[in-house]
Amino acid sequence: MTIAQQRTFLTAEWKNLLMLNYAVDPELLAEFVPAGTVLDQFAGKTYVSLIGFEFNETRILGRAIPFHQSFEEVNLRFYVRRGERRGVVFIRELVPKFAVAAIARLAYGERYSSVPMSHRVERSENGTIAEFSWGSGSDRCTISAETSADEYLPAEGSLAQFITEHYWGYAAQGEGGTKEYQVEHPQWKVSNATTAQFRGPAERYYGARFAKVLANPPDSAFLAEGSAVTVFKGSRIF
Q1: Is residue 237 part of a domain?
Q2: Count of domains in the chain?
Q3: Residues forming beta bridges with residue 134, ordered by sequence position
Q4: Dihedral (C-alpha) 21, 26, 27, 32: value to the nearest 10 degrees?
Q5: Please, is 50 exposed, middle or buried when counting C-beta atoms within 10 Å of its C-beta (0-12, 13-18, 19+)?
Q6: What does pTM read for this prediction?
Q7: Exposure b/e, 52-83, CB count within 10 A at least 16 = b
Q8: Is 218 part of any domain?
């Protein structure tokens, strides 16, 4: 077994990442910033992103868990730095599989919950329609977008690059520490959204402060094609 294999926690295919991005007051995120990190900004603005995507071919510690290889995830995240390392912090992560949520909470201390979920991705010569939904009945929420048919690799220094190319994760631990872990994947092609929206009772999942953010149209939105990914085991940095 190689050193990389020894360090690997999860491998999967992340596909069709629908990303809705909102500029926010940095004070909104102050209490969520893990020790040892600082908020990252793009062009002087602080962003949160609401992201839905497909998990496929999932393996944890090299093993496929029956009935847990393919599922959706929706997460609300923001962006931080630790020195030269640019990373993400998750405010909330939702999956439809209880076991996946439980393992992630145990391994990383992440804010995972399990809820019913579904998705729809339809491609044509004119572009793509993508939709991710979670919850049921009056609690049901949806993010959706229509994109152009043009895909491109984000340019150096662009907002699309800033959103998609963070290769570290940081999770505040219950006792006040911080866990850091690495995520490895190639650069993703993206297509710009021509329309994008969130619908549903945001306060039910994200609280009043973030419900106000999500009540507005996103400042930008795009669909990333995704790829194979490797998530490595985490370590305490603080």
Answers
A1: no
A2: 1
A3: 117, 141
A4: 70
A5: buried
A6: 0.94
A7: bbbbeebebeeeeeeebeebbbbbbbbbbbbe
A8: yes
Query: In terms of residue numbers, what domain contains 178?
Result: 3-230
What gap in Å lies between CA 179 and CA 3, rounded to an integer? 20
In a domain, 238, yes or no: no
Q: Is the dihedral of CA 98, 168, 74, 15 positive or negative?
A: negative
CA dihedral 163, 183, 227, 224 (to 10 degrees): -10
Summarised one tens digit per residue, pLDDT across range 142-167 is 999 999 999 999 999 999 999 999 99
In a domain, 182, yes or no: yes
The helix (H) or strand (E) run that includes residue 208 is: helix 202-214
112 class by beta-carbon count within 10 Å (0-12 exposed, 13-18 middle, 19+ buried): buried
> Residue 198 sits in a domain of what CATH number?
2.40.400.10
